[in-house]
Amino acid sequence: MRGPSIILFVLALVPAGAVAGEADVLDVKATKSAAGTYDFDVTVRHADTGWEHYADKWDVVAPDGTVLGTRVLIHPHEGEQPFTRGLSGLRIPAGVDRVTVRAHDKVHGYGGREQAVALPR
Known about the structure:
121 residues; 2 helices
């Protein structure tokens, strides 16, 4: 085996879920909706391959590591990449003016690109 044949052979040995990689947060829009409450629109990219390997949630995390809120994603988005989903009415504790948004997938967990966001006043 040489050239492309060996590459195809090696790829055939890799489980399909492993090829999808980690979920990346591409964009975050945070909007203040009330005193101490925010709405988030988050764009995620992940090469979903089906029910066994897809981006299944994203979190809003305080600087101290506390998870302030989670948007659960209940199905794969194989034909919709990247995709944007929202989380409304998330209460942010007083004194927190910056958060990080991270995505999670069913195989790799966390580890893809995160986005830090300054919260509007």
